[in-house]
Amino acid sequence: MKPPAISPCLGVSDTQAAVDFYEKLGFTALPAGNDPDDDLRILLFEGEFALMVYRDEHLRGWLPVLKDTPVGAFGMFYLAVDDFDSYVERIRPLVTVQKDVMEHQGQKLFYFTDPNGYVIAVTQKQTW
Q: Any idea where the VOC domain is (predicted)?
C-alpha cells in the first residue's frame, strides 16, 4: 500500500472509541507499531490508507506545540466513496449529520461529525 502525500493524524479523546466509530462506518483499524503502550492506529478505507487516530494526551506529549490545542479541528476532511448513495444511507443512522445531502458543482456531498468534533464530508470518488 502506498501512503498518500499528506497523512492526517487526528488527536482524539479516546482512541478505542474513535476506532469503534470508524469501524462502524466501514473502516479497518491497524496498530501503527509494535509498542503496546502506544495507541496510534492507522485506519484504512476500502483497503487504502485513510487517516490515523491518536489519543490526545499522547499526541500532545509527542509534539508539545499541540499542548493547548483542543480536540477537533477547524476545517474538514473528505472521504471519497465508490457508491455515494448507498454509503450515505448505511452510515446516516450512525453519525451526527451536519449538512444533509446536497449538490455543489455537480458533486454530491454529505457532512457529518465524528465523536471528537472532526467534520467529514462524504463525496463520490472521482479522478482529477
A: 2-125
